[in-house]
Task: inverse folding
């Protein structure tokens, strides 16, 4: 199986349609400020259960990178980030729009995203096979160590208290253990409810905390009235603009591809890092924030590259690096596929179809975005009063449709309230979702590792690969708990807010 | 007292940890070599409990303010009510009626919408979602009451 087999499958009508729908929905939620890719993917997760596994993952990934395109539209034209990863695009993109260069900013953002998307697809294709081969040698001890590193890494970028983020991971792991124990058949933490024998519905929890909980606070907020949309005069950049953006796009693609792979990385981190890098490298850093085209080209390329390469650890190692990847891993599990290195061996056609679809998806996105940008700005004004009942209905029907159990719908409602409460108490719900996905796998690998080592925990530390992984996790943990770095982190996120 | 975020956060974590230990106490612990079903739940619950204590201790001298805005409560009430209504209705009332009532109830969460607009909007949402789920996605659900 190779990339080209995948490309052929990805071009089958059903998968092509899934890719198009994903890209379209992604752009749509990228444009809408009240709805992000995390909530949308959570919402559509149960729906994809009714599609083929390939079409499901093709569509979900299209939503993630499509949102990176769509988010830049509102960032540039209205100065509202439709998406967290486009926060930095507001800085220079909106300034460009005020100077009458909105169209140029939009095209550069789309061109940059496209180039970065192609580059990242190539990176995934070349890196995945060796990485999965390497991971094939992993035993349970190595897996346990890798998952621990993944979970710790996910916390580095959590906003607010590290302790609370770590606690959320533990809570998520605990929730993941609810249900029948695979080894003994005993019911665990189920309150003797037969509906919980198969565990808590991942889709219901994800939709509850990300979809429903958000409605409470968004409806409560007083939204400012009509937003001014900057007019678009010239759409195509001239040679000067292209020359100024070429290097930032190239650097953004590389930075994004690298940071996307890291645990906790992805689109948001990539765009911030690229903006900082461009400002540092520029001969005129004072132009940044005043409408510098480099400040749009770099981050917009980086966020798309980062969004795509964050698939690498999930597809090859089974470690989701951010909440979106946790959801897509959950989508694979709904279809009975466990994320991990065996995907490339057992489901190689699925793997290559998803990768090839990214190529097609990026092409579709340029077509969806540039000529129809006027249409998207109209959608931006879609009233939330119409949107949120639709979200509630889709969440209810979606949850119910997976197992046909009304109980799952109650779980959805319960976790809507819980999610709202947790966010109000300054907890982050993302780490909880990661824990929920990894909980059963972490336990199983730890159990097997201990069995092989005859109950001697030292064994995990003396195996070279797991020792390195655990040491990295420990160092990372120490570093983020140092008060000095904690303060820098807080200032970084304050700029974001 | 009521507005101290970390005091509450720590309390919630301690509650979850304690509940986990209490609910899982009947499960066999096993040994490190042969872990029982209760091993991981117990230790994870202990970890949650410890984190809860740390957050609570931090809160004693350094806390953030929290307040639940009153205007969040209306959406929270109606949206949750709509979801519970769906869970009760879907097995008997059929898809159209359930979706319609969910949309009506949820829309009440937003103040300032007229009944007429809510009615029109909810009929459209019920019909639209029926086309999407039963038509396009071919999910097998009864459209009408049994």
Result:
């Amino acid at each position: 199986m190779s990339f080209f087999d995948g490309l052929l499958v990805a071009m089958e009508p059903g998968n092509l349609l899934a890719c198009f729908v994903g890209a379209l929905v992604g752009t749509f939620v990228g444009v809408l400020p009240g709805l992000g890719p995390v909530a949308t993917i959570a919402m559509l997760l149960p729906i994809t259960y009714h599609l083929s596994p390939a079409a499901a993952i093709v569509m979900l990934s299209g939503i993630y990178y499509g949102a990176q395109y769509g988010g830049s539209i509102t960032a540039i034209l209205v100065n509202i980030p439709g998406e967290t990863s486009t926060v930095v695009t507001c800085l220079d993109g909106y300034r460009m729009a005020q100077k009458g260069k909105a169209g140029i900013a939009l095209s550069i953002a789309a061109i940059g995203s496209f180039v970065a998307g192609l580059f990242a697809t190539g990176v995934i294709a070349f890196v995945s096979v060796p990485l999965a081969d390497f991971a094939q040698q992993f035993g349970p001890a190595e897996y346990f160590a890798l998952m621990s590193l993944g979970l710790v890494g996910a916390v580095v970028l959590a906003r607010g208290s590290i302790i609370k983020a770590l606690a959320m991971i533990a809570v998520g792991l605990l929730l993941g253990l609810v249900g029948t124990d695979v080894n003994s058949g005993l019911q665990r933490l189920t309150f003797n409810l037969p509906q919980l024998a198969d565990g808590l519905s991942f889709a219901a929890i994800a939709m509850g905390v990300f979809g429903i909980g958000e409605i409470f606070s968004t409806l409560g907020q007083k939204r400012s009235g009509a937003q001014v949309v900057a007019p678009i005069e010239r759409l195509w950049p001239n040679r000067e603009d292209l020359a100024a953006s070429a290097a930032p796009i190239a650097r953004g693609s590389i930075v994004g591809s690298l940071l996307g792979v890291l645990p906790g990385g992805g689109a948001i981190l990539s765009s911030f890092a690229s903006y900082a890098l461009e400002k540092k490298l520029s001969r005129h850093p004072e132009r940044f924030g005043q409408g510098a085209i480099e400040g749009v080209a770099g981050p917009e390329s980086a966020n798309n590259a980062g969004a795509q390469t964050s698939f690498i650890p999930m597809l090859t190692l089974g470690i989701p690096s951010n909440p979106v990847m946790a959801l897509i891993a959950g989508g694979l599990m709904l279809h009975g596929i466990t994320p991990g290195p065996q995907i490339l061996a057992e489901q190689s056609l699925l793997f290559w179809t998803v990768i090839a679809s990214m190529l097609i998806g990026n092409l579709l996105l340029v077509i969806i975005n540039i000529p129809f940008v006027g249409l998207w700005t109209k959608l931006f004004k879609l009233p939330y009063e119409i949107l949120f009942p639709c979200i509630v209905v889709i969440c209810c029907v979606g949850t119910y449709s997976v197992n046909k159990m009304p109980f799952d719908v109650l779980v959805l409602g319960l976790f809507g309230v819980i999610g709202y409460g947790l966010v109000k108490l300054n907890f982050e719900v993302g780490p909880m979702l990661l824990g929920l996905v990894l909980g059963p796998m972490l336990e199983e690998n730890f159990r097997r590792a201990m069995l092989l080592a005859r109950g001697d925990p030292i064994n995990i530390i003396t195996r070279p690969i797991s020792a390195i992984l655990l040491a990295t996790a420990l160092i990372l943990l120490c570093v983020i708990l140092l008060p000095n770095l904690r303060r820098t982190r807080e200032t970084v996120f304050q700029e974001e807010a | 007292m009521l507005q101290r975020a970390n005091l509450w956060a720590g309390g919630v974590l301690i509650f979850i940890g304690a509940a986990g230990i209490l609910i899982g106490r009947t499960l066999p612990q096993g040994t490190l070599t042969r872990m029982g079903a209760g091993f991981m739940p117990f230790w994870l619950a202990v970890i949650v409990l410890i984190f809860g204590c740390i957050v609570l201790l931090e809160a004693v001298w350094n806390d953030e303010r929290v307040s639940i805005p009153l205007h969040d409560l209306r959406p929270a009430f109606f949206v949750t009510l709509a979801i519970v209504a769906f869970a009760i209705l879907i097995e008997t009332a059929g898809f159209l009626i359930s979706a319609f009532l969910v949309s009506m109830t949820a829309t009440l969460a937003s103040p300032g919408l007229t009944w007429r607009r809510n009615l029109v909007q909810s009929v459209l949402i019920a019909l639209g979602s029926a086309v999407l789920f039963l038509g396009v996605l071919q999910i097998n659900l009864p459209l009408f009451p049994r």
About this structure: Chain A has one domain: 3-496.
